[in-house]
Write a structure and sequence with these properties.
The chain is built from 10 helices and no strands. The protein is mainly alpha-helical.
């Protein structure tokens, strides 16, 4: 346990060190903040034109959550991609230490970035689009958002594990993120989708978490959304287990084939 914690902490320090180098103040102010705020604003304004203030508020919450979920998916996939292209994956494969806590630690900056993205979208757009939203309800929804990020991170890890021997990992990751935007009740209610697409939506992480977050933002107690969050956690465990098995299979295959570069 102590070794696992040490590996996790080491990975976390590396994660934030890389994050601080890549995301300079100029990048954050000139690219990151405008990207998420303007993307959310685009869909919110479309929703407002189509359905008025209520649909605009609906789209605002959906896009604020998706602004966090997308980086969470991408980050765990990127951790694997970065290890591969930086040439450090062979060391990870050969090391006798447990790679799981290290990989989770390496993703911590991504989860921080995800929460920051949501906070920025809400801070900028709530006063303009939905000033009637109760701040206390938004804060009550924060723990549900954290759980949703963890569950969707499993899907990101699975994506990175599947695409590990290929050169199109980020393409797959982005496609998954946009599929979730389309099917996950981000900009319109789940009931507006065809039944087959609704089945797909309910099989992906984020959907149940977003439904629970919407309910809490509207004032529902935690007791009313425990069923939704239970399904969200269950999906996260399923995708996380599948990701672990797939990543272990990739590493074992690389060892047996002698192709530890995987490129």
């Amino acid at each position: 346990m102590q070794n696992a914690l040490r590996l996790f902490w080491s990975g976390t320090r590396v994660s934030f060190a890389v994050y601080s180098v890549e995301l300079t103040p100029a990048v954050v102010l000139g690219s990151k903040i405008p990207r998420w705020v303007l993307q959310a604003l685009f869909f919110v304004l479309i929703a407002k034109a189509a359905g008025g203030n209520e649909l605009a508020k609906f789209a605002l919450i959906g896009n604020a959550v998706h602004a966090a979920v997308f980086p969470a998916i991408v980050e765990l996939a990127i951790v694997i991609e970065v290890e591969k292209w930086a040439g450090t994956l062979p060391h990870l494969i050969a090391a006798p230490a447990n790679w799981l806590p290290m990989m989770i630690g390496r993703s911590m900056a991504g989860f921080f970035d995800a929460l920051l993205s949501t906070a920025l979208v809400l801070i900028v757009l709530v006063p303009v689009i939905a000033p009637d939203l109760a701040v206390v309800n938004l804060l009550r929804a924060a723990p549900l958002l954290v759980i949703t990020l963890i569950t969707t991170g499993g899907l990101g890890w699975l994506s990175g594990s599947i695409s590990l021997p290929t050169r199109w990992g980020m393409l797959l990751c982005n496609m998954i993120g946009y599929i979730m935007m389309l099917t996950g009740a981000v900009n319109f209610p789940l009931s507006a989708l065809p039944p087959a697409v609704q089945v797909l939506s309910r099989s992906l992480p984020m959907t149940h978490g977003l439904l629970a977050i919407r309910a809490v933002v509207d004032g529902a107690p935690y007791s009313e959304v425990m069923g939704l969050m239970g399904l969200e956690v269950l999906l996260g465990l399923v995708y996380g287990a599948a990701a672990w098995l797939m990543f272990r299979h990739r590493l074992n295959t690389a060892r047996s084939n002698g192709n530890i570069e995987l490129i």
